[in-house]
Amino acid sequence: MAIDKHQDRGALSCGGGRGPHRGRRRALALAAGLALGTLFAEVAVRVTLDPHGAALADARARLPRWGALLGAGLLEGADDAALQYGLSTGFVAEVEGVTYRTNSMGMRGREVEATAPPGTQRMLLVGDSYAYGLGVGELATLDAQLEELLQAGQSAPTEVLNLGVPAYHTGQERAWLEARGFDLAPDLVVLLYFGNDASEPAYLHDDTRRFLYTDELPLPFAIKRHLWSSALYVLAAEASAEAYARSGAFTAGEGVTWPAVSARLESLFTACEQRGVPLVVANLPTIRSNATTADPVAFGSDLVDAARVSDLCVERGVPVIELGPLLVREARAGRLESLLVDPSPGPRYDDHFTAEGNRLVAEHIAAALAELMP
To answer: What is the DSSP track for 202-269?
Structure first.
């Protein structure tokens, strides 16, 4: 059959020429419309809601002491996705009569040498704000009091270095050990495991406004940091965090995030094993009230979470120091709340240990270490 070349040319022109151009123009117009709509929504949210300011105000109102310390610049964001943030180096500030300082290595306290002096046994205390010593001065922190007790009980000099970083979970603590801790050539690592280490994702740090925030959206860390400047993204991140909380992830005893928590513990165990550094876990449950511990049912779920950690340690052959019985004993005697920085309900509530509380925990750990590693 003969082909009409003119008709065929027209068909080709219609199918391969004007059609794609119109499609591209429509796509560009749609993209431009979406961009303008997003920009308008972004401006409207910033003006009417100011989610960045609201998030900052909420963080400061819930924990004023902690908020003031963050506002002074205690933390700074890190490019390392495993760390996400850390202590600012060379930081010094006084908050409510307590002086906090950070050395050039990003650790709380005095400057330390890269290696321990000859004949000195070096121990690293790893953990979150309970290891860091939020609410007390340097001499009253757990590491300082533990060092004093160990020095008194041994002929060889002993030093305990504080690698605690507020709000870290075990995965970040393992990354911090690998980034800095193992370079300090420790003879022993003590992990102070606190029971609220149940959140699967880590906090992120807003370097501009200086506060920690949660973002449970399934995006890479680097992208999250950049998107946080968007007011619309803040609303989406807050919604994701609320949904995560409703999932039961923070409900004691449920074990919703245990697979992630156990994997982080396993990775820390392995990191110490590979470097030949002994590890001891001091297991600190989330028990902070005289009233709740009067009833075994009330604090039983907290002890269930602690038991999971202890069982894993036993399974892996890692020595564990149980701090739960100590807390239960003090609570049942009506003394536990007197060991907290501020046990009063309300925004001033602070369940970190006072100097006396840290002393009690340090004595318990020192006695256990004497039996475990004489």
So the answer is: PPEEETTTTEEE---SSS-HHHHHHHTT-HHHHHHHHHHHHHHHHTTTTSTT--TTHHHHHHHHHHHH
pLDDT tens figures, 254-289: 777 888 889 999 999 999 999 999 999 999 988 777
23-60 per-position pLDDT tens digit: 777 766 666 666 566 666 667 767 788 888 988 998 88
- How far is residue 191's CA from residue 279's CA, in Å, rounded to a whole number? 7
**Are β-strands 320-322 and 279-284 bridged in parallel, bridged antiparallel, or unpaired?**
parallel
Q: What is the pLDDT of residue 256?
A: 77
3-state SS assignment for residue 50: coil
From the list 150, 152, 172, the residue with the least C-alpha distance to 161 is: 150
What single-letter DSSP state applies at residue 140?
G
Helical spans, DSSP H, in the chain: 5-13, 19-48, 51-62, 64-71, 129-132, 142-153, 170-179, 221-227, 231-246, 258-275, 296-316, 324-332, 355-372
Whole-model pTM: value is 0.87
- Residue with structure tokens 């700074």? 76
What are the φ/ψ torsions at residue 289 (nearest 5 degrees)?
-140, 135
pLDDT of 6 over the 60 cut = no
**How far is residue 75's CA from residue 128's CA, in Å, rounded to a whole number?**
13
Cross-strand pairs, 350: 342
Angstrom distance (rounded) from CA 279 to CA 124? 10
Beta bridge partners of residue 342, listed in sequence order: 350
Residues near 105 by Cβ (< 8 Å), separated by ≥ 6?
89, 111, 112, 180
User: What is d(CA 361, CA 326) in angstroms, rounded to the nearest whole number?
Assistant: 8
* Vertex 145: Cα angle to 142 and 146 (nearest 5): 80
